[in-house]
Design a protein that fits this description.
The complex is a heterodimer. Chain A folds into 3 domains: 2-170, Rossmann fold (3-Layer(aba) Sandwich); 190-350, Rossmann fold; 364-539, Rossmann fold, CATH 3.40.50. In chain A, the strands form 4 sheets. Chain A has a 6-stranded parallel β-sheet. Chain A is an alpha/beta fold. Chain A starts with a strand and ends with a helix. In chain A, β11, α12 (282-285) and β12 (296-301) form a beta-alpha-beta unit. In chain A, 38% of the residues lie in helices and 16% in strands. In chain B, 27% of the residues are buried. Chain B has 2 domains: 4-83, ACT domain (Alpha-Beta Plaits), CATH 3.30.70; 85-151, Alpha-Beta Plaits, CATH 3.30.70.1150. By secondary structure, chain B is α+β, with helices and mostly antiparallel strands. Helix content of chain B is 25%, strand content 37%. Chain B is built from 4 helices and 9 strands, in the order βαββαββαββαββ. Chain B has helices spanning 18-28, 57-68, 98-110, 131-141; strands spanning 4-13, 33-40, 46-55, 73-78, 84-95, 114-118, 122-129, 146-151, 155-158. In chain B, strands 5, 6, 7, 8 and 9 form a 5-stranded antiparallel β-sheet that branches. Classes of the chains: A alpha/beta, B alpha+beta. The interface between A and B is medium-sized, with 29 and 30 residues. Bound molecules: thiamine diphosphate (TPP) and magnesium ion (MG). Magnesium ion is lined by residues 437-439, 465, 467-469 of chain A. Magnesium ion binds at residues 437-439, 465, 467-469 of chain A.
Chain lengths: 564, 188
């Protein structure tokens, strides 16, 4: 039986086990929308802006571990996806974007709503396709999912002209996919694994630096086994948060620009760094040439291009983190490192980093920590980008694996609202908190309409400091207090919430913080809380731009802070 | 790190956009491609590209790894330090009035080049060799007035039995289906 190109897209998505699609219709993809009602198993979520479709698909993928799907029409629809695709690219999130294109005959002729979206997205996708015949749709979609989900995951884009959606052809979905130029290595080299085990056995001051790869390959158990077998302290990067249990005695929190002071010092002192599924990003390393000056580095990653990109590696191991760690633990001898471990405790005890001063002011840290405590580390927390993101990263020490979702690599403000939506679709029975910036929230708040339409009970905590706070902090510290274009003239967030049919609350008194969180948790629907926090609070610890980790400025001690 | 000229050979799928995907990786990292030659390989559906770039070995290694991530790249090798044959071809149009014509022909003979077109005012010379040879004949011809030159860019092959950027595994030809027609717009 012949099917239309549009039907083939839907059939193919069902073959890939897709349940939800986030999208927006327009002229070029209307045939696809025309076919959708025939496939009620494929639930389409109508977002209010295509950027949100991409971010929702992104967070959906992070929660489920499988590629999220978004649809957009040609031209502006497709270009609106670009930020979301770039975000998924930077954070290695599998995503399949399916865009409509102008009819074949108009391509390259500046047709109405034509944009060369495959050209535009070359640098931010693993691969993309312009499909010019309906016979190729099924194979292309199968390849698209294979590429997006395997190896180092990432976004792909399939661009389909309107008339190709309308062609009628036979449908066969390929059983398996074989691409000549694409054979990711998943198994670590045994000789390298032996060398790594030896380095671990020889080291006195080892540290594990675990990143997003641990979460992507779901290597929670394996990482724990490696750490416990040789008693190695574990630090997780921003995207590695919730890759290792927050309450584990070996766990030390986040390193880097706004990481725990003790971690930056420990990295400076370590004689062995085991980088697991991470990429030695500049926010982690500080000034690169002074990063971990005393350490040899073992680098485990699935992407060969990450090896040696930023730091020199003694033992690179290319492979899937889960598999490599499993093989590594078998090779390792049990170890203790008691002195080193007790040194980590001493450093922690001596440095405040995340101590919240006792004051009546509504400190953003206090709000965020109160949410963390109220949820007992359960459910999911999504953040925007800026100060509130860093505080959330500092104060969430979750035990639940893969429960912290943030825009790490691209640092996309506005991620907080649509990503929370994607996470809630993927985990309908879990509580989802979105820690929002007052500025970031305004970049994508239109999605409150979607959230109400689909009855998603997301709890939005706006950490309202009246500023694009991270920008203000940099202006204060590095631009001689020249505060320019970071003051936010904000709307009445409570009224705004109510206009969408969302429960709105305002909190400007410390005594109300916990009560408001409690009300939100018990409310069956979505909630927006406008937490009017101390406006000029800065994020510490901080590695000043260009400085080394050893030069980290810790949070001022309690006494000094209370003087202010 | 000081740069050297690197010769990099890539075996790639012969698909629309492949050049764009590859040059995008070079561009993003700020490399200037000195020369680039592309053509069909011995395997149907696969092309071989020869790049010459001026860069440090470390940088080239980084970009090569990035290029491997381009799905259409099947194999890529930096053959700079291998024994290799390199050639390029140039067409040079030089002013050649009657009085100097015999001198020019002499130069052509010395370089074992060919005259492929002639008219009373000018001749076109075809020369094949490494870049130095092409450079040398260019220098020799300059005094007569070079009107135009076009060079193919370097192609390279490793000496001996080894294949340059070989296809690993069995070579199964995969032909190409013709692309559907794009434009002109006839209404739809
Ligand atoms: C789309 C986008 N534009 C600009 C920036 C630069 N930027 C980084 S943090 C920040 C401030 C964010 O303000 P807000 O959302 O209120 O969070 P806060 O830092 O105040 O907690 C800005 C403007 C960005 N990261 N993303
Ligand atoms: Mg703010």
């Amino acid at each position: 039986m012949k099917l239309s190109g549009a039907q083939i897209v839907c059939e193919s998505l069902l073959r890939e086990g897709i349940e939800h699609v986030f999208g927006y219709p327009g002229g070029a993809n209307l045939p696809l929308y025309d076919a959708l009602p025939q496939y009620p198993q494929l639930k389409h979520v109508l977002v209010r802006h295509e950027q949100a479709a991409a971010h929702a698909a992104d967070a959906y993928a992070r929660v489920t571990g499988k590629a999220g799907v978004c649809f957009a029409t040609s031209g502006p629809g497709a270009t609106n996806l670009v930020t979301g695709i770039a975000n998924a690219w930077m954070d290695s999130v599998p995503m399949v974007a399916i865009t409509g294109q102008v009819v074949k005959a108009l391509i390259g002729r500046d047709g109405f709503q034509e944009a060369d979206i495959t050209g535009i997205t070359i640098p931010i996708t693993k691969h993309n396709w312009l499909v010019l015949r309906a016979e190729e749709i099924a194979d292309t979609i199968a390849e698209a999912f294979h590429i997006a989900n395997s190896g180092r995951p990432g976004p792909v884009l399939v661009d389909i002209p309107r008339d190709v959606f309308q062609e009628q052809v036979e449908f066969h979905y390929p059983e398996n996919v074989d691409i000549k130029g694409y054979k990711p290595t998943t198994e670590g080299h045994p000789a390298q694994i032996k060398k790594a085990a030896q380095l671990i056995a020889d080291s006195k001051r080892p540290l594990i630096l675990a990143g997003h790869g641990v979460i992507i390959s779901r290597a929670f158990q394996e990482l724990k086994e490696v750490a416990e077998k040789a008693n190695i302290p574990v630090i997780t990067t921003l995207l590695g948060l919730s890759g290792f249990p927050g309450s584990h005695p070996l766990y030390l929190g986040m390193p880097g620009m706004h990481g725990m002071y003790w971690n930056n010092i420990l990295i400076d002192e370590a004689d062995l760094i085991i980088g697991v599924g991470m990429r030695f990003d500049d926010r982690v390393t500080g000034r690169l040439k002074d990063f971990a000056p005393n350490a040899k580095i073992i680098h485990i990653d699935i992407d060969p291009a990450e090896i040696g990109k930023n730091v020199k590696t003694a033992v690179p191991i290319i492979g899937d983190v889960k598999q490599v760690l499993r093989e590594l633990v078998a090779e390792m001898k049990p170890g203790r490192h008691d002195e080193w471990i007790s040194h980590t405790h001493d450093l922690r005890d001596d440095h405040p980093s995340i101590t919240i001063p006792d004051t009546d002011r509504v400190l953003p840290q206090f709000v965020i920590k109160s949410i963390y405590e109220a949820t007992a580390g359960e459910g999911y927390v999504i953040t925007g980008v800026g100060q509130h993101q860093m505080w959330a990263a500092q104060y969430y020490w979750n035990d639940k694996p893969n429960s912290f979702i943030t825009s790490g690599g691209l640092g996309t403000m506005g991620f907080e609202v649509p990503a929370a939506m994607g996470a809630q679709f993927a985990a309908p029975n879990d509580v989802v908190w979105s820690i929002c910036g007052d500025a970031g929230f305004q970049m994508t708040l239109q999605e409150l309409a979607t959230i109400v339409e689909y009855e998603l009970p997301i709890k939005f905590a706006i950490i309202n400091n009246g500023y694009a706070g991270m920008v203000r902090q940099w202006q204060e510290l590095f631009y001689k207090k020249n505060i320019v274009a970071s003051r936010m003239f904000n709307p009445d967030f409570v009224k705004l919430a109510e206009a969408f049919g969302v429960l709105g609350m305002r909190v400007n008194d410390k005594a109300q913080v916990k009560g408001a969180i409690d009300v939100a948790m018990r409310h069956p629907g979505p909630v927006v809380i406008d937490f009017q926090v101390d406006e000029e609070e800065n994020v510490y610890p901080m590695v000043p731009p260009g400085a080394s980790l050893a030069e980290t400025v810790d949070l001022p001690k309690l006494e000094e802070r209370l003087k202010v | 790190m000081p740069g050297t000229m690197h010769t990099i050979v890539a075996l790639v799928e012969d698909k629309p956009g492949v050049l764009n995907r590859i040059s995008s990786k070079w561009r993003q990292r700020g490399f200037n491609i000195e020369s680039l030659a592309v053509g069909h390989s011995e395997v149907p559906g696969l092309s071989r590209m020869t790049f010459v770039v001026d860069a440090s070995t470390n940088d080239v290694e980084q970009v090569t790894k990035q290029l491997y991530k381009v799905i259409d790249v099947v194999k890529i090798t930096d053959i700079t330090h291998e024994a290799m044959i390199t050639r390029e071809m140039a067409l040079i149009k030089v002013r050649a009035t009657r009085d100097v014509r015999s001198q020019i022909i002499e130069i052509v003979d010395i370089f074992r080049a060919n005259i492929v077109d002639a008219n009373p005012e000018s001749i076109i010379i075809e020369v094949t060799g490494d870049e130095e040879k092409v450079g040398a004949i260019y220098e020799m011809l300059s005094p007569y007035g070079i009107m135009e030159m076009v060079r193919t860019g370097r192609v390279a092959m490793v000496r001996g039995g080894a294949v340059t950027a070989p296809l690993d595994g069995p070579v199964e030809g995969h032909g190409h289906t013709p692309r559907p027609h794009i434009g002109p717009y006839q209404g739809d």
